[in-house]
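Can't paste images in this forum, so I'm doing it all in text. The chain is below; anyone willing to post the predicted structure tokens underneath?
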Amino acid sequence: LAGVAPTLALAALLLTVTKPHLALLDWAALNAAPGDSMRALRRARPELRIVCVVNDNEPYRSAAAQAGADAVISKAGFAAELEPLLHGFLPGRFGACGGGYE
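Text version of the structure:
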């Protein structure tokens, strides 16, 4: 975990300083338009993978995907959905067995 940002401006600043590979974005916590948020994060770190965490509501899932999220996962299925994404986005960084980290 490189950091937690309560605002989009702070998130952009943290991205340039910490240079993470992946960002989890809580869709409900955005205080800006979804498309604007994605563009701001991409400007701060173009190679960043953005995973939006949303309620199990199809309009939220669709909006996150349309805004340019690399992946969309549900709050209800967070752990089960996040682990396969991490293996796919960051190959070789996690052990072969479920939950095992190298």
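The radius of gyration is 14 Å. Helices lie at 8-18, 34-44, 58-67, 78-89.
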